[in-house]
Amino acid sequence: MRDVAIVGVGSTQFGRAQWSLLKMMCEASHEAIQDASLGDRKIDAVFVANMGSARNNRMAGLASALVDRMNLYPAAAETIENGPASGASAFKMGFLGVASGFYDVVLVCGGERMREVNNLEATEFVSFLSHRYAEYVYGVTLPGLAALFARMYMERYGVTNEHLAMVAIKNHANGLLNRKAHIRDSITMEGILTGPDAINNNPWVSEPLRFYDCCPVSDGSSALILAPANLAKELCRKPVRVAGIGQGTDTHAVHERPDPTELTAVRIASQKAFHMAGLTPQDIGVAELHDAFTILEIAESEEAGFFPKGEGHKALERGETQINGRLPINPSGGLKARGHPVGNTGVSQLVELSLQLRGDAGKYQVPSRPKHGFTVNFGGFGNNVIATVLSEGV
Amino acid sequence: MRDVAIVGVGSTQFGRAQWSLLKMMCEASHEAIQDASLGDRKIDAVFVANMGSARNNRMAGLASALVDRMNLYPAAAETIENGPASGASAFKMGFLGVASGFYDVVLVCGGERMREVNNLEATEFVSFLSHRYAEYVYGVTLPGLAALFARMYMERYGVTNEHLAMVAIKNHANGLLNRKAHIRDSITMEGILTGPDAINNNPWVSEPLRFYDCCPVSDGSSALILAPANLAKELCRKPVRVAGIGQGTDTHAVHERPDPTELTAVRIASQKAFHMAGLTPQDIGVAELHDAFTILEIAESEEAGFFPKGEGHKALERGETQINGRLPINPSGGLKARGHPVGNTGVSQLVELSLQLRGDAGKYQVPSRPKHGFTVNFGGFGNNVIATVLSEGV
Amino acid sequence: MARNIEAAKCVQCGKLHYPTHFYCPSCKGTKFQGVAIEGEGTLVTWTRSHVLPLDYSTMYITLGIVQMDMGVKVMGQLDVGTPQTGMRLRSRIGKVREIQGSDIKGLVFTAI
Amino acid sequence: MARNIEAAKCVQCGKLHYPTHFYCPSCKGTKFQGVAIEGEGTLVTWTRSHVLPLDYSTMYITLGIVQMDMGVKVMGQLDVGTPQTGMRLRSRIGKVREIQGSDIKGLVFTAI
Ligand SMILES: [Zn+2]
Ligand SMILES: [Zn+2]
Q1: How far apart are CA B249 and CA A102, in angstroms?
Q2: Which pLDDT belongs to residue C99?
Q3: Whether B111 contacts B341, CB under 8 Å
Q4: Are A288 and A295 in contact (CB under 8 A)?
Q5: How far is CA A93 from the centre of its chain?
Q6: Does pTM top 0.95 for this prediction?
Q7: From the CA of A303, how far away is ligand 1's center (Å)?
Q8: D56–B contact, CB cutoff 8 A
Q9: pLDDT over threshold 80, residue A104
Q10: C61 to chain A: which residues are within 8 Å by CB?
C-alpha cells in the first residue's frame, strides 16, 4: 500500500444552510481544491458521504451530481452511507483508492441538509438506524438509545448529570472560538443544570439526557483532498499523513450486547487504527470524538484507550480534555457545538484534525501543536465505528 | 496492486420478494459463502449495494444491519449508492479493499426491495436520479429520458421499433432458461408489435418506448466473495479474475450533452476497463449489458466497442448477440427478463458473468465457454457508468 | 390474541438469541425454533423519551431494556409509573406503535 | 409575471451553459451572469410519457429537448398536439409540476 496524505481541506459554515445541498458541497470542495493548489491536475475520483438525500432532498446519485455541478467528468463518483459515520467511511474508501494505486488525486466530500425537513421528520429519519423490529417499532430514537446507555453508564461508574454538563460547557466554549460552528453560545452550569431556570433552558429530551446533552440538527459540508505521499509534497506545504484507519462493528440491537455499557466497536476500531499507525494512545495530542451525546465523549475517550474504563469523567473533571489540557478533546466544538450534519460529520472531524496538525486552527488551535491526532466517527448507535490516526508531515 | 478474484457467487430468486430486504441479502450472501467454501476463514469487510432502503424500507446503515444479521462482527461494513450502478460501485470498492492489501476476504452484496412501495412511488423514487431543477421538475422519469434518447437514436441510425422488440424477444427467450429470472414469458413479434392485440399486450410507457421495452420493477439480491489471487486458488476450484474495471461520468442533464445520442461515460468506462485488462472487445465471448430499456442494449454494445456506432441493431438482426451467436449479450435474460432490483443489478451481472466463465450457467450456458466476459452497469441516465472485464482462472 | 414475539433457539446447539440472526452466534447453525418471549424479567435500564417519532400523539413514552428470566434481553415499552433499575417486570403483548395506519404489536411491561 | 429560467454566462470567457455549474465548463471561472432562457428554438427529440410521477393527475405529459436559438439546449414540456423533430417552438414560463402543494414553474413550448 502507498502512503496517503491529506493535501487540502475545506468546510462551509454549519447551521441552517443558505443554499442547496449540492451548492454547499461545491463550496466546501472548492475551498479544499484551492487549499491543495492542485493547479491543472485532474481529480480522479470523488467520494461523497451523505445519509439522507434520497429521503430529505429528493436526490439520488449525489456524487454523480457533484461531479456534474463541478465539471469534474470523467472522474469516478461514489456515494457512501454509514449513518453518522458516513464521513469516515467515504474517507476510508478514498484512502483505499489512493493506497491501492488505482487513483492519484481524490476528493472526499461530506454533505447533509437535514433542515430541508422538519425536526420531527429528521428525528424519525435518523431512527431508521435502529434495529427494524427489535428497536424501531418501539418508538426509540437515537437520543433514546443514548439515554438507555447513559443511565446504565452513570449508575455503574458514578457519572452524574454534572459531568455530562461539563462536556457540553467545554465544547460550547470551544465552539465560541470556531467561526464556522453551528452553535456559538456560552453556557454555564447554573444556566443549564443547577440554577432556577435550568429546566426551562435545558428540558428533558430522553431522561437522563437533556437538551444540552444532545447535538443540534445541522446542515453543512466539509471536503478534503487525498494524494499519495510522494505527490503530496508537491501539492501542499503542510501535508498530513493518514497514519491509521480502523473499523469495528457490533450487534445492531443495543440490548443484545453482553454488556451494553461497552462500546466494543469503538475499542476494536481504535486498536486497529493505533496498530496500523504504530502508535499508542499516549502519542496522541488532540482528538475529535463523536459527541452526538455528551455521554459518548466520555465513553469513547475510555474505549479508545486514553483513560481507564469508568474514569473518563474524572479526567474531564481535572480539565485534561480542555483545549489547553493534556489531551484536548473536540477543540473545534465537536458535534455538540460545531454541529452534526449527519453524513458529513466524519469528514468534518478529519478536516478539523488536519487544521490542528498543520497549526492552522486559529483561535481554537491546541497550543502544544500536536504531531498526532485521533478521531472516532460513530455509526448507528455504535454498531459501525471508524477510528483514524493522522500525523503531521509525510 | 494485488490481483483479485471472485471465489464464490450467490443469488436469490428475482421478482416479488417473499422476505424482508435483509433476509433476501442473507440468502444470497449465504449461497456465495457456501460456494466459496470459506470454512473458518473470516470475512474482513462487507460492501453493500442498495439504492432505496431509506426511502422504501425505512432502513439506514444497511451494511451494518447485514453484518449483524449474519454475525460477521467485527467485519467492516459499507453501503454504496450509485443509482442503478450501485452494484458495480460496491464491487469496485470491494476490489480496491482487496487489491490494496487492506482486506483479504470481502463480501459484496447487492439488495433491493422496491416492491415494498407501489409502482408509482418506485417510479418517482428512481426519477430522483434526474437533474433536480433542469429535468426532475418537468415530470421526467427514467423511461422518459430513455424515450427522448431512443427517438433521437432511431431517427439518426434507422433503428426501428422492430429492432427494440428483437432485444426484448431475445432476452425473454434467454430468461426462460434462467430459473431465477423475474419474468419467464415467451413473447413474439406478433404478440408485442405487429399483431392485432399488440397495443393491449404492449402499451406505450413513454413514446416511442412500450411496456416490453422497459425492464420490470424487481426485488432481489446477489452476492459474491472476493479474495486475493493467491488465496483464491485455495478457496475455490474455479476462481474468476477481476481483469479490468473502468468508470466514467458525464453531464447530469441529458440535454446538456453536446450530442445526446452519445453515451460518453459508457465509452470511457469500457476503454478504461479494456486498458486495465490488456484486452480488446474482440477478446470478449459473453457480455451482460444494462438493458433497463431495449435501446440501451443496442447503444451500449456500440459504445463498448463491439460494433461500430449505429450498427448494433444490424448485429442484432444477424443474430450475433443470441446465446449461440458470435457475442452473446445477456444470456441470463438481462435486466429485461432476469429483472432489475435497482441497486443490486451490477452485482447480479457479475454473478452471471462468473457463472458463464466457470461453465456453471446451466441451461443458459454460452456454448463456446468464453474465457473473457464484460459488463456495463449504467448509473443515472448514463452519467455514471462502470464497465468490468472478468477472465476465467487466476 | 396477539402473535408472540419470539426469540430463536438453535436446533443444533440450543443457544437462544434475540433478535434473529441468520447464523447461530454460537455454532453458525442455520436452523432455529421459535421460543415465545414471555414471563418475568429484571429492568436493566430505562428512559422516558419526550421527543418522539412522527407516529405518536402522547407526550412521552417510557422504554426499557429488560433481562428476561427465559434468557434473552429485550427492548420494550414500560407501563410503569416510576421505573427503577433492577425492578421486576412482567411482559405482555400490546400495541407499541402505529405505522402508516397499522397497529404494531410488541412487548409491554408492567410492574409485578 | 413568473420568474425567468436562467442560463449562466461566464463573466470571464463568455461561455453560456445550462444547467448551472460551479466552475465554467470552458475556463473554470466561478463568476456568472444570469441570462434568461427565452425566445425560439428547434425540437431535438420528444416523448409522450404515460407513466407519470405521483404529483400528476393528467393521462400523459409531453416532454422535449429543445435547442434554443439563444444558445443552450433545455428540457421543457410541450404544449403541442403533434410534435415533430425539427419543428420550431416558442418558450414561455408555465406551471410544470406540483410538489407538496407548491406550483413549480418551468419552460413550456408551443408551436410557432
Ligand atoms: Zn447453535
Ligand atoms: Zn468561462
Answers
A1: 17
A2: 85
A3: yes
A4: no
A5: 16
A6: yes
A7: 30
A8: yes
A9: yes
A10: 138-139
CA distance C24 to chain B (A): 8
d(CA A262, CA A240): 32
**Hey, which chains touch B, using 3+ CB pairs under 8 Å?**
A, C, D
Quick check: A202 contacting B, CB < 8 Å? no
Cell readout for B322 is 443470441
- Distance from the Cα of D38 to chain A's closest Cα (Å) equals 23
Assess contact for A222 and A339: CB atoms under 8 A.
Answer: no
CATH number at residue B108: 3.40.47.10
Q: Which positions in chain A touch B80 (Cβ < 8 Å)?
A: 78-81
Question: In this model, does residue B186 exceed pLDDT 70?
Answer: yes
Is B375 within a domain? Answer: no
**Beta-carbon separation of D97 and B137 below 8 A:** yes
Residue A292: closest CA among A147, A154, A193, A180: A147
Q: Within an 8 Å CB–CB cutoff, is residue C30 touching chain B?
A: yes
Q: Measuring CA to CA, how many Å separate D22 from each of A11, A76, B253? A: 16, 18, 15
The 3-state DSSP class for residue A300 equals helix
Q: Total domain count for chain A?
A: 1
Burial class (CB in 10 A: 0-12, 13-18, 19+), A72: buried
Ligand number nearest CA of D32 is: 2
CA B218 distance to own-chain centroid: 13
Q: Please check whether residue A248 lies inside any domain of the structure.
A: no
Whether residue A26 and residue D22 make contact (CB cut-off 8 A), yes or no, is yes
> To which H or E segment does residue A353 belong?
helix A345-358
Domain containing residue A88: 4-118+217-235
* pLDDT (tens digit per residue) in B60-87: 999 999 999 999 999 999 999 999 999 9
Residue indicated by cell numbers 434473529: C20
Q: Is the model's pLDDT at C1 over the cut of 70?
A: no
Residues in contact with B25: Cβ distance below 8 Å, sequence separation at least 6, in sequence order: B48, B62, B66, B69, B109, B111, B221, B223
User: Residues A29-56: pLDDT tens digits?
Assistant: 999 999 998 888 999 999 999 999 988 9
Interface residue of A19, A26, A43 to substitute, partner D, most D CBs within 10 Å: A26
Sequential DSSP letters for B79-146:
EEEBTBTHHHHHHHHHHHHHHTTS-SSEEEEEEEEGGGS-HHHHHHHHGGGS-TTTTGGGT--HHHHH
Longest alpha-carbon distance in chain A:
61
3-class DSSP state of A53: helix
DSSP one-letter code for A41: P
Contact at 8 Å (CB) between A168 and A212? yes
**What DSSP designation does C18 have?**
S
Confirm whether B225 is domain-assigned: yes
Report the gap between the CA of B247 and the closest CA in chain A (Å).
Answer: 6
Whether residue A166 is contained in a domain is answered as no
> How many contacts, defined by CB atoms under 8 Å, are there between A and C?
105
- Across the range C62-90, mean pLDDT stands at 98
Residue D84 CB neighbour total at 10 angstroms: 9
The DSSP call for residue A192 is: I
Q: Are A226 and A108 in contact (CB under 8 A)?
A: yes
Residues A256, C97: C-beta atoms closer than 8 Å: no
From chain A, pick out residues whose CB is under 8 angstroms from the CB of B384: 61, 63-64, 67, 77
Rounded Cα distance between A350 and A49, Å, is: 13
Q: Collapsing DSSP states into helix, strand and coil, what is residue A384? A: strand
> Is the CB of residue A384 less than 8 Å from the CB of residue A127?
no
What are the structural domains, with CATH classification, of chain C?
Answer: 6-111 (2.40.50)
Decide the pairing of beta strands A219-228 and A106-113: antiparallel
pLDDT at position C100, please?
A: 80
Distances (CA, A) of C66 to A261, A339, B301, C105, C109: 14, 33, 59, 17, 9
Distance in angstroms (rounded) separating the CA atoms of residues A17 and A302: 34
A71 and D20: CB-CB below 8 Å? no
